[in-house]
Amino acid sequence: MLTKRFLVSVLIAITCVQLVSSLTCYTCLNANDCKKARKTTCTVAAANETSHHLGVYHQNVRWVPMYRYDCLALKYTYQNNNTVTHQLHGCVHPDVNACNLYLKPQYSSWRRAQCKVCSGDKCNKNPAGALSRSHYTIVAAGLALVLAKIYA
Ligand SMILES: *[C@@H]1O[C@H](CO)[C@@H](O)[C@H](O)[C@H]1NC(C)=O
Ligand SMILES: *[C@@H]1O[C@H](CO)[C@@H](O)[C@H](O)[C@H]1NC(C)=O
């Protein structure tokens, strides 16, 4: 019995650590790409790539090497119609302040139709709109199953 209790504690600890230390975001680079967004686990390189893409049409995007991440959902359209001019989803460093950046002068007529920086797995939502079960639900379900087996 003691061994089982111990095993359960270890399992719960491992699950918690994983939930805290890894973040998954939907990632896509332009309007067409966002019809089939990927899920990416945030790393320095992934957040770096987002900064790089932000820098194509924004001024003064800072390169902030840090190990905290948020998810970004960003969409620009033309001012007079809803045609998407640019769309970007991905992992982002919180200090980049992605939603407060200024556009470069040549893109200044774009309208910021959506900008969201959030924390939580896949909180930047699949831009194609398909629903998917959250990571957390799957982990919780798995843990419940293990507990049920051990105490049965
Ligand atoms: C991040 O980007 C900068 C410049 O854009 C580059 O010099 C650096 O090597 C990149 N780092 C990683 C870990 O990708
Ligand atoms: C939307 O407006 C832009 C610029 O005014 C124009 O170039 C584009 O063709 C328009 N798109 C549609 C679908 O009307």
Structure summary:
Helix content is 34%, strand content 22%. With 152 residues, the protein is of the alpha+beta class.
Can you characterise this structure?
It is built from three helices and five strands, in the order H-E-E-H-E-E-E-H. Helix 1 packs antiparallel against helix 3. The chain has one domain. The mean pLDDT is 84. By secondary structure, it is of the alpha+beta class. One 2-acetamido-2-deoxy-beta-D-glucopyranose binds next to helix 2.
- The Rg value, from CA coordinates, equals 19 Å
Q: What number of structural domains do the residues give? A: 1
**Bound ligands:** 2-acetamido-2-deoxy-beta-D-glucopyranose
Largest sheet composition: 3 strands, antiparallel
Strand content: 15-25%
Question: Residue ranges: pLDDT <50 for 5 or more in a row?
Answer: none
Secondary-structure element string: HEEHEEEH
So how many helices?
3
> Tell me, what's the shape?
elongated
**Content-based structural category:** alpha+beta
| Order of strands, widest sheet | 4-3-5
Count the strands? 5
Helical amount: 25-40%
Distance between the termini: 12 Å
Query: For the residues shown, what is the average pLDDT?
Result: 84
Observed structural traits:
152 residues, alpha+beta, 3-stranded antiparallel beta sheet, two-stranded antiparallel ribbon, binds 2-acetamido-2-deoxy-beta-D-glucopyranose
Blueprint (SSEs and pairs):
Blueprint: H1 2-21, E1 24-27, E2 38-41, H2 44-57, E3 70-77, E4 84-92, E5 111-118, H3 135-151
Antiparallel strand pairs: 1-2, 3-4, 3-5
Helix pairs in contact: 1-3
This protein binds 2-acetamido-2-deoxy-beta-D-glucopyranose (2 copies).
